[in-house]
Amino acid sequence: MSIFSKIAAGEIPSYKCAESEKFYAFLDINPLVKGHTLVIPRREVDYIFDLDDDELAEMHVFAKRVAIAIKKAFPCVKVGMAVLGLEVPHAHIHLVPMQSEKDMLFSNPKLKLSQEEFEDIAARIRAEFK
Predict the structure, then answer these.
(1) From CA 37, how far away is CA 18, in angstroms rounded?
(2) How far apart are the C-alpha atoms of 107 and 69, rounded to whole Å?
(3) Cα–Cα distance between 110 and 29 in angstroms, integer?
(4) Is the pTM of this model over 0.85?
């Protein structure tokens, strides 16, 4: 079972931003910027393109709803989306509030946030999620 499956199952704590029966969104613990969120399917699948077509489409629609909430909670030019998939063997989408394209450079230094900051960020996104 991947670490992300354990997070979605509630076995490992996370900063939950949104959830549905099929998907779970939570803050990246090594964020590029405040509001950097991961969206995962609850079903454990390593490679995003191994999801069936309907599930992949549903995941993107769910991610869109999360991105809208992020943009409301953290005003930005756009919310960028990236699928890398090498660091954890569980399909996931990164949603990153952007003021410029440089905000999406994964080689950038990661923010160091306190538990209280993470809790506040997640609560702000949850409050905007529809």
Answers:
(1) 10
(2) 25
(3) 9
(4) yes
- Distance in angstroms (rounded) separating the CA atoms of residues 32 and 28: 9
CB atoms within 10 A of CB 9: 11
Write out the catalytic residue numbers: 92
pLDDT band at 86 (very low <50, low <70, confident <90, very high): confident
- Which tokens sit at 52? 């069936």
Give the span between the Cα atoms of 55 and 91, in whole angstroms.
12
Q: How far apart are CA 85 and CA 26, in angstroms?
A: 16
**Mean pLDDT score, 79-105:** 94
Overall average pLDDT of the 111-128 stretch: 98
Long-range pairs, 13-18, Cβ under 8 A, ≥24: 15/118, 15/119, 15/121, 15/122, 16/122, 16/126, 17/66, 17/69, 17/70, 17/122, 17/125, 17/126, 17/129, 18/62, 18/65, 18/66, 18/69, 18/125, 18/126, 18/129
Q: Residues of the chain with pLDDT > 90: what percent?
A: 93
pLDDT exceeding 70 applies to what percent of the chain? Answer: 100
